[in-house]
Write a structure and sequence with these properties.
The chain has 8 helices and 17 strands. By secondary structure, the chain is of the alpha/beta class. Strand 5 and strand 6 (about 150-155) form a beta hairpin.
Length: about 350
């Protein structure tokens, strides 16, 4: 049985092997298939942060297992409990499999070791994606699939303080901002169809948080037309319209709203017109409320929080050569849903 499994995996495409290694009961001879009307092979991924160890976290992981993605972006804040790294990793691998690519970027609860240690999390949930560049868990990128990639994932840690007491610097002129910009430019030069940036903290919010990641980073991402930016931190689901900077909007200021910075207000976007920001802090730990009267509310298209159809769940995304299809999938106990498309 094992020999047959290996032979079939060797004959599969790079993406099929990734799926085969990560998902229980998969058929490695069958690569991911686009479900949105053409476009050839696809990459299917989920994303969620702010997880915890409770029943809701288990429900989200069960939903993820049901969706059978090729990988998951875990956008920070994992166990919320010091010394519980092993229990968290066991919860994840028990539901998704020990080889599933549950890919980590630190959140503020484990970056400084206060509620877990990112160094321990990356050991028990190591990188499973070939070709990763950078420091896994802190700042890294990877192309998926490695051969003829469809998407470059860039994961960064702005606004976080690590155990050495130093907050990573993504300010204007910083080395880390330059690294991020270079990773984006490299994806374009390699003609990779899609670029996705993920990080724990955010800039735009209809809740309690300010622009901890910084305006220079945020505006750079938009100016580069990064297709999708995924964050956590706010324990809610929030999706912006497609945002832009250019002639009529030279720079977006946090805490304000400028309609000239909105490229498109429906849910069907054209690639290259701007960037969509999605907060998926819905991994299972205590939802926050959202404020429909927030000064930045005009930037948002859809939202759900503790006071507005609150739902734990995942952002579920499929990309192929022609389009990016994204939707929010609730785990349990909520009817809230959201979806959008970006077309090339």
């Amino acid at each position: 049985m094992a020999t047959t499994f290996v032979k079939r995996c060797l004959k599969a495409s790079a993406l099929a092997v990734l799926v085969c290694l990560g998902a229980a009961g998969c058929d490695p001879a069958s690569p991911s298939v686009d479900g949105s009307g053409g476009g050839g092979p696809s990459v299917h991924f989920t994303a969620a942060g702010d997880v915890g160890l409770g029943d809701a976290a288990g429900n989200v992981l069960d939903k993820m297992a049901e969706l059978k993605p090729d990988l998951n972006l875990a956008v920070g804040d994992f166990s919320y409990q010091a010394g519980a790294e092993g229990a968290f990793c066991d919860m994840v691998t028990g539901r998704l499999g020990k080889e599933f690519p549950y890919e980590l970027i630190a959140g503020n609860h484990e970056s400084d070791g206060s509620d877990g240690d990112i160094g321990k999390f990356v050991k028990c949930l190591p990188n499973r994606l070939p070709g990763l560049q950078g420091e896994y868990g802190k700042q890294w990128y990877v192309d998926v699939p490695q051969d003829q990639p469809l998407v470059r994932f860039i994961l960064i840690s702005p606004g976080l303080t690590f155990q050495d007491g130093v907050q990573l610097d993504y300010s204007k002129g910083s080395e880390r901002l330059a690294w991020t910009e270079s990773a984006i430019n490299g994806a374009r030069e390699a003609k990779i169809p899609w670029t996705v940036v993920a990080m724990h903290k955010l800039c735009f919010s209809m809740g309690r948080y300010d622009c901890d990641v910084g305006e220079p980073l945020t505006n750079m991402l938009i100016s580069k037309n990064v297709d999708l930016v995924v964050t956590g931190h706010q324990h809610a689901y929030q999706r912006t319209n497609q945002l832009r900077v250019g002639d009529r909007c030279s720079y977006i200021r946090a805490g304000t709203f400028d309609r000239n910075c909105v490229a498109d207000t429906d849910s069907k976007h054209a690639q290259g017109n701007g960037t969509v920001f999605v907060t998926a802090g819905t991994g299972g730990y205590g939802l926050h409320g959202v404020n429909g009267n927030d000064t930045e509310a005009g930037y948002f298209k859809a939202w759900s929080g503790a006071n507005n159809g609150g739902a734990f769940g995942v952002l579920d995304v499929t990309v192929n050569t022609k389009r990016l299809d994204a939707k929010f999938v609730p785990a349990q106990g909520s009817l809230f849903k959201d979806s959008f498309v970006i077309q090339r």
